[in-house]
Amino acid sequence: MPGIDGFEVAETLSGFNKTKEIPIIFLSAVNTDKKFITKGYESGGIDYVTKPVDPDILLLKVKTFYRLYEQTLALNETQQALISEIETRKKAETKLKERVDHLHSTLESLPQIAFTANAEGQIEFVNEKWFKYSISAETFPKTHPDDKNIRDEWLLAMGSGNALELEVRIKEIDADIFRFHLLRIIPIREQEVIVKWVGTFTDIDDQKQIEKKKDEFLSIASHELKTPLTSIKAYIQLLERTLNAEHSSSTSKYLNTVQNQVSKLNSLIADLLDISKIDNGKLKMNKKLFNFENLLSNVVDTIYHTHENSNIRIEREGDAIDQPVLGDEIRIEQVLINYLTNAIKYSPDSKRVIIKTEQENTQIKVDVTDFGIGIPEHKQKNIFNKFYRVEESSLKFQGLGIGLYICSEIIRQHNGTFGIQSQTGQGSTFYFTIPLN
């Protein structure tokens, strides 16, 4: 190049970021002294070749140096990628630490006992309130001997990946009384993978005591009301016989109305007693083999008798149940009466109810279908809950919302299933299944 020699060109190329990695080989037939060779290397050359030159060796050198150049570029790119990844990880770790610190700070400020654990269930953090109930951050608070084991229940939850919600009784280290707490442990997921669990113990003992007193009051009140009702009903029957003998039709009609109302009140009290038994785990089933067809026939007769003024028509479809059923006949009758009574109540403009029975190898299924007001889909999941009533019908139709709850408990204790299929304005089908034996 005019005005510049090879050494200066090499120095210039070495001074730019884009060209400094280019391998430079000096080739000279004039400057063959040691000082020129030294200057070539100092200028950034990687080799200095003097003529005469073997072309094959020169070509091999060029190929070798070029390969080294490419490898150097690849190493540099890898290094930059590693540096970038390290920086990204450092930022992610910093951000994660900030999130964890914020979580711990939040849990520390809660009024509940709170903790976190890793994906495998090893406890990583507990707040200060934990140590009022446990001497170790790695040990759950002591539970009442009759309660479920926390660790066992949590292992089941971890196996399914679901949150755990469990009522347990725990006590402070220095206390003698166990208090009810609601334990909730929820999974924290990142990209659909559980990375952490967060749990809390919430003291619900005061609430449980209030519920207990309410249930006790309900039970006592129901029993106290049932006693005079039984006497009233007996005296009404005696009075009715007397009036029938005297042929007093108008008075007999009034007494019949009174007796119907007493029967309704008696049924309501019976339901309240059942609620009390369910809440206290005392609703027992007296299971024996019985003839389902006879039971169903008696239930239909009862419904016709108690709904004389409704002009309802009950139709039967499906299979005849020709095998004996093992269950509590009185309680299954209660379920059937409830289903049919509801079907009539909530379809005031329809005079038709269908009972469909199906017999499979190991169970029977009973459907009760009406053509009434129906139930919105988003409210169907709550229809078997205690005291639940659909708002749209609660003002028009009387009831406490306990009948279906009692039915669901009866079917559960028969190891059966229950449910509903409904469309607003088109009616509902309530069903249940129970094993044959």
From TrEMBL:
Keywords: ATP-binding, Cell membrane, Kinase, Membrane, Nucleotide-binding, Phosphoprotein, Transferase, Two-component regulatory system. GO terms for cellular component: membrane raft; plasma membrane. It is an enzyme of class 2 (transferase). Its EC number is 2.7.13.3. It holds the Pfam family Response_reg. Residues 1-66 form the Response regulatory domain. This is histidine kinase. It comes from Sphingobacterium spiritivorum ATCC 33300.
